[in-house]
């Protein structure tokens, strides 16, 4: 099984667009679709996509406890750049970039929350 896309919830599409426009291109994300006022999408190197939108049920978007997409980066430099850009564009730090030996000797990652509080990681694994 592979994942085709993820949905990231937001309560402010314009703010989210500004955030993701600053972050996703640094990790190989290419802007793919825009449905103004509804959703937008980035496509990544491995052809997976990340859609950002408000919930279809029109209720408030809220981060899921235990949910966290991990965005695969091509290098430690990409992890660092994405983490830095996220913080500079309204994100909050959930873990500085660096080695995470508890996930394996070759694992390197940085963790943030977007302006809506969605947690995500930027990761690089030298063995992949």
Low-pLDDT windows of residues: none
The gyration radius over C-alpha positions equals 14 Å
Helix content: 10-25%
Distance N to C terminus: 18 Å
- Please summarize the sheet with the most strands: 4 strands, mixed
Principal-axes geometry comes out as globular
Average pLDDT taken over every residue:
95
Number of alpha- plus pi-helical segments: 2
In N-to-C order, the SSE pattern is: EHEEEEHEEE
List keywords for this structure.
128 residues, 4-stranded mixed β-sheet, single chain, alpha/beta
Molecular structure report:
- The protein has 128 residues and is α/β, with parallel strands linked by helices.
- The chain contains two helices and eight strands.
- The protein has helices at residues 13-23, 76-88; strands at residues 5-9, 30-35, 39-43, 49-53, 70-72, 92-99, 107-113, 119-125.
- β6 and β7 form a beta hairpin.
- α1 runs antiparallel to α2.
- The radius of gyration is 14 Å and the shape is globular.
- The two termini are 18 Å apart.
